[in-house]
Automatic annotation (TrEMBL), chain A:
Pfam families: Ald_Xan_dh_C (PF01315), MoCoBD_1 (PF02738), MoCoBD_2 (PF20256). GO terms for molecular function: iron ion binding; oxidoreductase activity. Its EC number is 1.2.99.2. This is Carbon monoxide dehydrogenase large chain. Keywords: Molybdenum, Oxidoreductase. Residues 21-139 form the Aldehyde oxidase/xanthine dehydrogenase a/b hammerhead domain. Coiled coil: none annotated. Gene3D superfamilies: Aldehyde oxidase/xanthine dehydrogenase, a/b hammerhead, Aldehyde oxidase/xanthine dehydrogenase, molybdopterin binding domain.
From TrEMBL, chain B:
It comes from Candidatus Rhodobacter oscarellae. One of its GO terms (molecular function) is 2 iron, 2 sulfur cluster binding. This is Carbon monoxide dehydrogenase small chain. Transmembrane segments: none annotated. The keyword Transcription regulation does not apply. It holds the Pfam family Fer2_2. Residues 2-78 form the 2Fe-2S ferredoxin-type domain. SUPFAM superfamilies: 2Fe-2S ferredoxin-like (SSF54292), CO dehydrogenase ISP C-domain like (SSF47741). InterPro entries: 2Fe-2S-bd, 2Fe-2S-bd_dom_sf, 2Fe-2S_ferredoxin-like_sf, 2Fe-2S_ferredoxin-type, Beta-grasp_dom_sf, Diverse_Oxidoreductases. PANTHER family: OXIDOREDUCTASE WITH IRON-SULFUR SUBUNIT. Keywords: 2Fe-2S, Iron, Iron-sulfur, Metal-binding, Oxidoreductase.
Automatic annotation (TrEMBL), chain C:
The keyword Oxidoreductase applies. InterPro entries: CO_DH_flav_C, CO_DH_flav_C_dom_sf, Diverse_Substr_Oxidored, FAD-bd_PCMH, FAD-bd_PCMH-like_sf, FAD-bd_PCMH_sub1, FAD-bd_PCMH_sub2, Mopterin_DH_FAD-bd. PROSITE patterns: FAD_PCMH. One of its GO terms (molecular function) is oxidoreductase activity. It holds the Pfam family FAD_binding_5. This is Carbon monoxide dehydrogenase medium chain. Residues 1-168 form the FAD-binding PCMH-type domain. It is an enzyme of class 1 (oxidoreductase). It comes from the Bacteria. Its EC number is 1.2.99.2. The keyword Flavoprotein applies.
């Protein structure tokens, strides 16, 4: 029987009620008294010298309160990068300034030049359009190879080139890897593109700045996945506001997928302007503006070489990648192609020698940063594609080739040659599960049916692993992170026995308000409805590093468990006093404290009441009250893994790909709420399949964004996707966090693109076409062109 | 500015609008009905779908003045009279048909329009009908199941054990 | 968007009069015009709404067996009301945009805009329809004049469109995956006097007839008779498809339309 509450129950989401009745509180729903509105004048060229800004005509237009330009921000810090990468030669990366409003140059279409604050949004827009920016257009740097070529125009004149860093990992392995590849029985080589994507959460970004003159406190309401991080970055590095004078609130947030981790210029602007004009200032992005201001994702060009022996054993792996940084370094941009990518190149396999080279490149495009999976989809895609190609070249079944190289269950903990140690896993188990659920053996019959309908059917399989639960602070500090990546939680018990958990994790769709109470309810043995989750406001939650990298339950949940354990330990002491027993003999179950071997008991609520009405209370030993805070810093990453299988039909006449079946067997360790976990996988699959078949962010040679709206950027629709078969019954619990959880948010987006491409290549091969690779997205035009070239 | 009157969720309302005032803006800013969301500016995402005289429309692609005299229903008007969730809303909760909630009002309004037109749609019909509603969170899997369930059709359990 | 005055006349005559003002523009369902105005790519001083003109709404078949569709009739209404008499055209209307767009967008608005990837121009040209305005009647062959260009004069309103009903017809549309306009669409109509084939979404010149296919299919109305793909010269190249791919689609979709038309 499935549980109906606590850990493992598919509790219905309590947050749904407000979202289903239109009573959610998103940032754009917030309107403050006296609020003014901002509109930005943005560069419409990709690269140019900004000679001056003439706002005289705009200044006199109706409703204009004040106009800001780069000059207003000369005394203000730039937007910081949160991760310093050290290159192959031990040198720090090149790190350009990133002003809030452009100073001297514009570097991508959408770069903000000036901002108008006016009485209404329409007046602000009208006036912004009347500002005259004098720009001398310069040649745009768009293609990464061209950007690195001798004599290329420079995105940043004060840097030596457009190369941010040249990273080698593990540099000491470089020669050994080369030797192994040179001497191998077989080497499979693949050149591929990991297409540039736009996260496109359905809620566009919004920022509302406010300033209280009476106490000098600034408040920013913003669409963020991590309000404390914004407070730290904006307060300390940009505006110079001490954290105790700055409050950041991220209320209901309509999806993030990475793009709302970063600190953006508009947040700093609204906070700055509110103080300058002593009025609240609001900015609401349009979708068109989002396309040219939200950080983009992926955009890698890679050559990968896999060396194998005659039996198909992986001997060595080498990759060369160009990673697009865009025009400026977004908050975590530099970590994505390096530490979130190179460290995953072992995959699920025992490959002993690996060398990863990444050159990060500045271009005149929107900054590129983490998007769902961040580095790990790029790693998985190249690895699982090259394995598939190797299987075909060597005539080995693609499942069998993977199995021959899987790390075996008795090899954990397993230290890979790329600096991470997997704590636990069972890759054959998820593969077996996926094959069974996908009816792998029934494929030929389905293929025959497809053929009878004039379609080519193909199937693709792959494994994946990811490093989640980001991250051990000491480790990431050594690797260049400029922040710790712990999480914190305060558990406050009220006198009447109800609990409030104030967490640094932030929910923007993940269902924390439902899942986190399930853990507390299980620990104490009370009803989930007695636990409330508070998040998203720096004024009433402890320090928090936020939600990304599938870290909420693994890191934030663990902090909550640690705080709850402190609560329970203290409550046991109070209970022991009330029952005149020894602390050590007190047990807590089903919301009741008992003394082993006696019939003594005291209810949870009575202990809580005693803590706040300490008439009969061990005041000499413990303080009144029942509130505890814990900070949890993980000992290691977590390593969710799994096996995915995709079956497609290709229409030979049009090249149209249709996903007929998709099966995902994941190992997430223990699962708190299966319904929510499955929903996370579905969503990840939607985005991964979107990347594989539909989505493509494209610039032309002048740096103009060609796919700048939903008219050209193809978002997956309901009829683009199939029903999914997902399973999480293979569970090897994480060995180093108290819940044994691994995280599930990114798996679908990481594991699915190679399964889709492998399946399409298989279908084309079965259709008699010698196609070994097609770059994503596999649009009908691209598939047809590959078939007919 | 001209004054425009209409009935919203059964209540007569009026307000001053410019020619360019969109129905979505009239509802959100003028009436405080912030359940209707705006997720794009090219009439594609469907977060703003409301019913005008019983038909689903994108309220960000219709001027408020064009709705003069109309009967408008928004997500705020979809609950039962006693405040409990309506059938479609309840199915979305039961089948986990929403995550961040931003597209949800439009999804519910489109689902209501679909079921009014086609009380027992096939899965393919549901998917096709949602062509104008984009969700970035769910992969649509559970939205489709919620709508099938709301139509009274058999749907597998929400999650594996 | 820039502000403007919205006028809502009740008759064609009042609408024509309102459109005589400076920078006045008709507003159909607004499903293209409003997004365009949000981008500030259009900034009329006056918008004249067709939505309140009852005489411009409706679908009927006249005594000569010609289907007449009012210029302000929505796609949803055509999809529903034309399905018995002209199912291919109803099916085309039912594939435009999405349900909410179809509840607002109108045939007159679509034809007047003449988007090179829109569906209605293919159905109209493929049917050999006649566009009726407040001033005159214009044959479809004369109406479409290239990208976003039509024979309409300033201030001229499409009051109705007359569709001769073919013996067999079908519309095949390959979706542009983002906009859901036609990446390429082909409308085939077989009349007693011959076959018409109209192609949208493929050419830099907008909707056009594929005369080679018309000749071949007029002689033998079967999918096997569809000629080789047309030249890719002057076909659209964008991130969704190459000219060669579109040329292939013209051929493949024509064959499928003929097969489906039966």
């Amino acid at each position: 029987m499935p549980k109906d509450s606590g850990i493992g129950a598919s509790s219905k989401r309590r947050e749904d009620i407000r979202f289903l009745t239109g009573t959610g509180n998103y940032t754009d729903d917030i309107n403050l008294n006296g609020q003014a509105y901002v509109a930005f004048l943005r560069s419409d060229v990709a690269h140019g010298t900004l000679n001056g800004v003439d706002s005289s005509a705009a200044a006199g237009m109706p409703g204009v309160v004040r106009i800001f330009t780069g000059a207003d921000f000369e005394g203000v810090g730039g937007l910081p990068c949160g991760w310093q990468v050290t290159d192959r030669h031990g040198q720090p990366m090149q790190e350009p300034a990133h002003p809030v409003l452009a100073q001297g140059k514009v570097r991508h279409v959408g770069d903000p030049i000036a901002a108008v604050v006016a009485e209404t949004a329409a007046q602000a827009r009208d006036a912004a359009d009347a500002i005259n920016a004098d720009i001398t257009e310069l040649p745009a740097v768009v293609d990464m190879s061209a950007a690195l070529a001798e004599g290329s125009p420079k995105v940043h004149d004060d840097l030596t080139s457009n190369l941010c860093y040249d990273w080698g990992f593990v540099e000491e392995n470089k020669d050994a890897v080369a030797a192994a590849i040179d001497g191998a029985h077989h080497v499979t080589t693949l050149e591929l593109v990991n297409n540039r994507l736009v996260a496109n959460p359905m809620e566009p970004r919004v920022a509302v700045g406010d300033y209280a003159a009476h106490n000098g406190e600034s408040t920013l309401y913003t669409t963020s996945q991590n309000p404390h991080v914004i407070r730290l970055l904006m307060g300390a590095f940009v505006l110079g506001i001490p954290e105790h004078k700055l409050r950041v609130v991220a209320p209901d947030v309509g999806g993030g997928f990475g793009s709302k981790i970063f600190h953006y210029a508009e947040e700093a602007f609204c906070t700055f302007a509110a103080k300058a004009i002593k009025r609240p200032v609001k900015w609401t992005s349009t979708r068109s503006e989002a396309f040219i201001t939200d950080a983009h994702g992926r955009d890698h060009v890679t050559k990968i070489e896999l060396a194998l022996d005659a039996e198909g054993k992986f001997l060595a792996l080498r990759t060369d990648t160009l990673a697009n940084m865009g025009a400026y370094l977004s908050t975590f941009s530099t970590s994505v192609p390096t530490w979130l990518h190179g460290t995953l190149m072992a995959g699920n396999y025992t490959t002993p020698l690996i060398y990863v080279n990444v050159k990060a490149v500045f271009t005149n495009t929107v900054p590129v940063d983490a998007y769902r999976g961040a580095g790990r989809p790029e790693a998985t895609f190249q690895l699982e594609r090259v394995i598939d190609k190797a299987a075909r070249e060597m005539g080995i079944d693609p499942v069998e080739l993977r199995r021959r190289n899987f790390i075996q269950p008795d090899q954990f903990p397993y230290a890979t040659p790329v600096a991470v140690e997997y704590d636990t896993g069972n890759y054959d188990a998820t593969m077996d599960k996926a094959l069974a659920l996908a009816d792998w053996d029934g494929f030929e019959a389905r293929a025959a049916e497809s053929a009878a309908n004039g379609k080519w059917r193909g199937r693709g399989v792959n494994s994946y692993i990811e490093a989640c639960g980001i991250a051990p602070s000491a480790l990431v500090g050594q690797l260049g992170a400029r922040a710790g990546l712990y999480e914190s939680a305060t558990v406050r018990v009220n006198a009447t026995g109800g609990l409030v958990v104030m967490t640094g994790s932030h929910s923007h769709g993940q269902g924390h308000e439902t899942a986190f109470p399930q853990v507390i309810a299980e620990m104490i043995g009370i009803d989930e409805s007695m636990v409330e989750i508070v998040h998203g406001d720096t004024a009433n939650t402890p320090m928090g590093m936020g939600t990304y990298g599938s870290r909420s339950i693994a890191v934030g949940g663990s902090a909550m468990v640690r705080a709850a354990e402190k609560i329970i330990n203290k409550a046991k002491k109070i209970a022991a006093h009330l029952m005149e027993a020894s602390d050590a003999d007190v047990e807590l179950a089903n919301g009741e404290f008992t003394v082993a071997g006696t019939d003594k008991s005291v209810a949870w609520g009575d202990v809580c009441l005693a803590a706040y009405v300490p008439h009969n209370y061990p005041l000499e030993d413990i303080e009144p009250g029942l509130e505890e805070t814990a900070f949890y810093d993980p000992a290691n990453f977590t390593y969710p893994a799994g096996a995915y299988i995709c079956e497609v039909e290709v229409d030979p006449g049009t090249g149209q790909v249709s996903i007929e079946r998709f099966t995902a067997a994941d190992d997430f360790g223990n699962v708190i709420n299966p319904m929510i976990v499955e929903g996370q996988v579905h969503g990840g699959l939607g985005q991964g399949i979107g990347q594989a078949l539909l989505e493509n962010c494209v610039y032309d040679e002048n740096g103009q964004l060609v796919s700048g709206s939903f008219m050209d950027y193809a978002m997956p629709r309901a009829d683009d996707l199939p029903n999914f078969t997902v399973d999480h019954s293979c569970q090897t619990p994480c060995t180093h966090n108290p819940l044994g959880v691994k995280g599930c948010g990114e798996a679908g987006a990481i594991g699915s693109p190679p399964a889709v491409v492998n399946a399409v290549v298989d279908a084309l091969q079965r259709g008699g076409k010698d196609v070994t690779h097609i770059d994503m997205p596999l649009s009908p035009s691209r598939v047809w062109s590959a078939m007919n070239s | 500015m001209t004054s425009v009157s209409m009935t919203v969720n059964g209540k007569p309302v009026s307000g001053d609008v410019e020619g360019r005032t969109l129905l979505s803006s009239f509802l959100r800013d003028g009436q405080g009905l912030t359940g209707t969301h705006v997720g794009c500016d090219t009439s594609q995402c469907g977060a703003c779908v409301v019913h005008v005289n019983g038909q689903a429309v994108k309220s960000c692609t219709m001027f408020a003045a064009e709705a003069a005299g109309a009967e408008v229903t928004t997500i705020e008007g979809m609950a039962n009279a006693d405040g409990s969730l309506g059938t479609i809303q309840q199915a979305f909760q039961d089948y986990h048909g929403l995550q961040c909630g931003f597209c949800t009002p439009g999804m519910v309004m489109s689902a209501a329009a679909l079921l009014a037109e086609n009380p027992s749609p096939s899965e393919a019909e549901v998917r096709h009908y949602l062509e104008g509603n984009i969700c970035r969170c769910t992969g649509y899997h559970n939205i489709v199941r919620a709508i099938m369930a709301a139509s009274g059709q058999e749907v597998p359990a929400v999650a594996a054990e | 968007m820039h502000n403007f005055e919205l006028v809502t006349p009740n008759s064609v005559a009042d609408a024509v009069s309102a459109l005589s003002g400076e920078d006045a523009q008709p507003l159909g369902g607004g499903q293209t015009l409003i997004p365009t105005m949000k981008q500030r790519l259009a900034a009329p001083a006056t918008l004249v709404s067709m939505g309140g003109i009852a005489e411009m709404v409706g679908v009927c078949v006249d005594d000569d067996g010609v289907m007449v569709i009012g210029g302000a009739t929505t796609h949803a209404q055509v999809a529903a009301d034309a399905s018995a008499s002209y199912p291919a055209l109803a099916a085309l209307a039912g594939q435009i945009g999405d349900p909410a767009v179809r509840n607002r967008g109108t045939i007159g608005g679509s034809l007047a805009n003449n988007d090179p990837a829109a569906c209605y121009p293919a159905g109209t040209l493929g049917s050999g329809a006649t566009i009726v305005t407040n001033a005159r009647e214009i044959a479809a062959d004369d109406f479409f004049q290239g990208l976003f260009e039509t024979a309409l004069d300033e201030g001229e309103i499409i009051t109705s469109v007359k569709f001769p009903i073919p013996e067999a017809a079908n519309y095949q549309k390959m979706l542009q995956p983002a906009s859901r306009f036609a990446l390429t669409g082909v409308f085939v109509a077989s009349f007693a006097g011959g076959v018409r084939v109209a192609v949208t979404g493929a050419s830099n010149e907008g909707v056009h007839r594929w005369s080679a296919a018309e000749a071949a299919l007029s002689a033998n109305f079967s999918a096997d008779a569809v000629p080789e793909a047309p030249s890719a010269d002057d076909l659209i190249s964008d991130l969704h498809g190459t000219p060669e791919y579109r040329a292939n689609l013209v051929k493949v979709l024509t064959g499928r339309a003929v097969a489906a038309a039966g």
